[in-house]
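Usage example:
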Amino acid sequence: MATAEEIAAQEFSSIVQSHRPQIFRFLLASTRDYDLAETLTQECFLKAHRNWSSFRGDSSAMTWLMRIAINLQKDHWRNRRMQFWRLTQTNAVEMDVASEWLPSGERSAEQKLLAQEQVAHVWQAVKGLSERQRTVFLLRYVEEQELSEIARATGLSEGTVKAHLSRALAKVRTELGGQR
Amino acid sequence: MNWKAEFGEKTEQAELEAQEAALKQELSDFRMSVHAWSDSVYSRPRPVFKATAHRVWQRAAGWALVCVLMVGGVSGGLFERQHQQQMARIEAARQAEQQRLAAEQRVREEEEFLAKVDSDVSREVPSAMEPLATLMAEDEAR
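Running the assembly step on the lines above writes:
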């Protein structure tokens, strides 16, 4: 017969297995730094593990984990702001490298090249977004979350999320429009 | 006129729709690109042991440095204390030597003074007694 602690550990283990790739993806897209994304993902799950008993299930585990991840990356950027070498963007990979990854599908080589260029421009626009706009944009267009979910994960109202998303999208449009 | 305006509106709307469709496609490509990139990075082998070994070395080096600094600090402190004690001993010996010399000097000066007083006293003979003194000197010479 399993004890309550064992059951909780099993539950947490399954949460890690199912949500880790998504948390890692969000952090990777936010930072464009493999090692940093890996470190922050580990920190996120460590924090979640420590507070697992206090998780009441008001929101989904994913929303709860995403909120921790958002706070971690926010803290990271705040700390980095204090360091003079932040301008060098130490380990962040270049946009071209990040945009190289595109499933080939049924596209011609030319179409694929064009798509890669467009993806690079989206990255360029994302780079110019504010921290909040970037977070909201990535949650909406990469993680395909609903506005209500984004609001819960970021702790913002749905109206504020909409406003950030609209501004972010306008910047992306401008960046892409300039290239057309 | 009417059909022209209607045609213009339709063209504009078609353009907007085309732009929206293009944006949708670009955002979809972006999402697929991020997913593919993340999946590829996520599934690559992670150098856990290397990182751990690296961290162990870093920690060992850190501890070694702390130990060296502590030993340096303690031995430096001890050396400083010993040095101060030695200097204090030398100073005390020097002061004692000075006191001894000063005392000897005082004794010597006192003796010289007393000798001078003696000689002065013996020389100063009242004029009335001078003949007697001369006789005594002659007696002594004899």
